[in-house]
Structure formats: C-alpha cells, structure tokens
Amino acid sequence: MADLNPNTRYKYVRIQGQELAENTMYAKGIFSMCWQLIQNDVMDEEDADLFKEIDKWFAEELPWPEPCKRQEKVVCFFKTENTEAMMRMIRPALWLLERYNHPYYLVYTNSPGEIVYEDHYQVAVKVPGVLQIEPVQPSWSPKNDAEEGNA
Q1: Residue-level pLDDT at 132
Q2: Contacts of 112 (CB under 8 A, 6+ apart)
Q3: Going by C-beta distance under 8 Å and a sequence separation of 6 or more, which residues neighbour residue 129?
Q4: What letter would DSSP give residue 136?
Q5: Which residues contact 60 (CB under 8 A, 6 or more apart)?
Q6: Where are the alpha helices (DSSP H) in the chain?
Q7: In terms of Cα–Cα distance, which of 21, 14, 16 is closest to 102?
C-alpha cells in the first residue's frame, strides 16, 4: 500500500512527460523529451549543446541497460539512494524543459513494476507496451439539487 507520509523515503524516481513513447506506450523520460525538442528544432543551438553535454555525461558515467539497447518495452528509474550526482547533472535538463514550456513530472515510488535490469544507479522495468483505456466509473460525488430536479 502506498505510504502518503511526505517524509517517506522512496527507492526510485523517474522524470517523465505527458507524451507516450510509441514502443512502450509509457510516458517518455527526460532524455527522450529533450532529444525530441532538439530533433523538432524547438531548442536553440546553445541549449541543445548544453543538453548534449548532459547526455554525454550520463552515457559515460552510467551503464547503458541491455534492455534499453535492444529497445525492449522497458522504462528506467533512478535509484534515489545513489542519485545525488545524477540529479545535480540532470537539473539543467529540467531547466531546459521549463524554458521551452515542456511539462514534466517527478515520479517517486517504491514499486515501479517488474525489474528486468538493475545496476548501482538505476533499474529498468518491464512495461506491457499496450495502452489500457478503461471506462469512467460512475460518479461517486454527492448529487446537488440541480441534478435531482430540485432547482
């Protein structure tokens, strides 16, 4: 069960956007979002160079998960216990997303799903790759007088 205590220490964090990746049908991560801004010529050259340096640092410092290399249906979460240097390096990328008005979310969790890869810094989690859309449940809110015909 989720612990809603604001002082809870979570094991994993993921920075993700609103748009879905085609192969995973899961919210794109920060690297995909920034690369998309570059590829769509949204980001100016100086900002693109900054992001490329950030991306280079991560490529050099973190192992590249095998499931990601094979473009399997996985998403990655950073381990919060080992993220101090990573978060320091990723902050400028968050600033870039904000600069270009690109919404993002920090998702903290202790249960990201089925872990299929793990190293010192991150985990890769298997995702179904199918978007499951469910009908909206009936309203559970109290009816007001207008809805009951008492207006």
Answers
A1: 86
A2: 12, 14, 77, 123, 125
A3: 23, 24, 25, 26, 73
A4: P
A5: none
A6: 30-39, 45-61, 66-69, 84-99
A7: 16
Exposed, middle or buried by CB within 10 Å (0-12, 13-18, 19+), for 62? middle
Q: Once rounded to an integer, what is the mean pLDDT over residues 63-82?
A: 91
The 8 Å CB, 24+ separation contacts for 29-33 are 29/75, 29/76, 30/90, 30/93, 30/94, 30/97, 30/104, 31/55, 31/58, 31/93, 33/97, 33/102, 33/104
pLDDT band at 86 (very low <50, low <70, confident <90, very high): confident
pTM of the model: 0.83
Which of 31-35, 84-88, 94-98, 122-126 is the least confident region? 84-88
